[in-house]
Amino acid sequence: MRYKPTEKILASEITDEADYLNRREFLKLAGIATAGALVSSACQADVAEAVAERPIPGRSLGKVAKSDFSTTAKPNSYEDITTYNNFYEFGTGKSDPHRNAKDFVTEPWTVTVDGECDKPGTYDFDELLRASALEERIYRLRCVEAWSMIIPWVGIPMANLLKRFEPNSRARFVRFVTLYDPTRMPAQRRPILDWPYIEGLTIAEAMNPLTIMAVGLYGKVLPNQNGAPLRLIVPWKYGFKSIKSIVRIQFTEKQPINTWQASAPHEYGFYANVNPEVDHPRWSQARERRIGTGLFGEKIPTQMFNGYGEHVAHLYSGLDLAKHY
Asked: Which superfamily does 11-316 belong to?
């Protein structure tokens, strides 16, 4: 997600020094503060080591296959990922979701599928999960606010999931909707955005091999604050495209209007591809602050399509990516 157009990055949303020092002490004690780039197998072993050193809360997802799509970069700690994130349904501060989503109930959970498909209906999430082969995808996450992380998601390839519903020839886009329940998501009681949260992809983007429906993190079920029980992950786009706590998937002929596009169309478009050459109207997108690499985060150059261009650039052939942002 993102800030409202009138908001600016607050000092309170930068990692607190005490939190940073505590994190560094933990990394030191856990023995996982290593330097340099890692090969894929070593990176995956490092994830397992981190889990072993400090037990990750939550239910194990069981057998999870490794993926060739995983980055070789070292993942952020579970602490980083679960205490510094956006989920405006639980508050606009970076630590609000961690504090306010503790009692969010995600069982039972159903997903309504409708629109241009031959198998619409209301599907039980647990049944969908049991019928799916899970993969670990260690992906870069680039937020539109110019910070980033490396996250070891566990998920289902989106193409495998959507094919079950048999989209027809008129299905050109996929529209996703978050749960609307102000009793369970307290920040929905305030007009921060026009609830419920809505996102959309072209059918080609949704079916791309990189796109997944994430159901876990570090081998365990997805934490509430990170979008439980299921969220979209599209690693070449800014993080606000990764809609959380999904309750509806709709196949459409017309391009859906996503929530931030409706809120501030001059700042946020439909595509939201990571592009260091197209700045946000209020800040540069040329560099990003990597969370977990220092008190204020190491500043590193942002890559086009977040570094996934070889897999997705063909989706935008002939498209003006400055105009279609």
From this structure: Oxidoreductase, molybdopterin-binding domain (3.90.420.10)
